[in-house]
């Protein structure tokens, strides 16, 4: 597929999706959100993709937020629609993908940028990364899931402070908060992220998809995570991956998962 604002390339089981509007610090305009939806959807459906990495182009920004120039004149109705559409097309969509998504945060991750990183299944940051939800400094609140996912990741008090002050935290603070899992140098960020992707790829993609579903269930209204876990656990017993994984263990060899 041809894109104007992003790059998507797949090699060795990893699809790397790069937001590519460096002159606007990779801000998410409407077209970029639609393109990201298409790229994530395509990668998730492809048997060639085992892990998706999302990052920003250039050294300065992952994503500096939603594109402020697009919504500055919106009405109440248009504002609500912007948030609903964005959550559906990109943020909830990414969080619920069955393929693991890792955000490699290579600079500013602000507003919608941090919300995109938080929608990913986990995050790795370079040591120059800066993260924040500065929306209240513009007279608005985070609308792409930030008020929900930030407290899930850093706790209520930390999220309240970050959102109310509209401040930025650096990569090491984000590591302390549990917002990112690892911090690397800028040069090592992608290689390090790919190494973790490589570890994930050795395992059963079907079981990983079940695990994502069960973990996410804990954060969904009306879902009982323990019940979903029981169901998903049972489902695994009907998969070829389970047969291969258990047989390989008993035969003292490495599993070669068919991904079914
Ligand atoms: N939406 C639209 N354009 C944005 C943007 C955003 N969220 N963030 C940056 N840009 C644009 C700037 O307007 C500028 O464009 P121009 O060169 O055509 O004027 C370009 O990206 C470079 O940004 P600039 O502000 O000059 O870089 P800087 O290094 O001085 O500052 C930031 C970097 C991240 C601190 C600053 O860009 C910023 O505060 N951005 C907005 C962050 C934000 O509030 N995000 C939440 C949105 S809901």
From TrEMBL:
Keyword field contains Lyase: yes
| InterPro entries named in the record | ClpP/crotonase-like_dom_sf (IPR029045), Enoyl-CoA_hyd/isom_CS (IPR018376), Enoyl-CoA_hydra/iso (IPR001753), Enoyl-CoA_hydra_C (IPR014748)
SUPFAM superfamilies membership:
ClpP/crotonase
PROSITE patterns, per the entry: ENOYL_COA_HYDRATASE (PS00166)
One biological process term in Gene Ontology: fatty acid beta-oxidation
Against Gene3D superfamilies, the record matches this protein to: 2-enoyl-CoA Hydratase, Chain A, domain 1 (3.90.226.10), Lyase 2-enoyl-coa Hydratase, Chain A, domain 2 (1.10.12.10)
- Give UniProt keywords alphabetically: Lyase
What the record says about family reads:
Belongs to the enoyl-CoA hydratase/isomerase family.
Name under which the protein is recorded: Enoyl-CoA hydratase-related protein
**What is the organism field in this record?**
Aequorivita flava
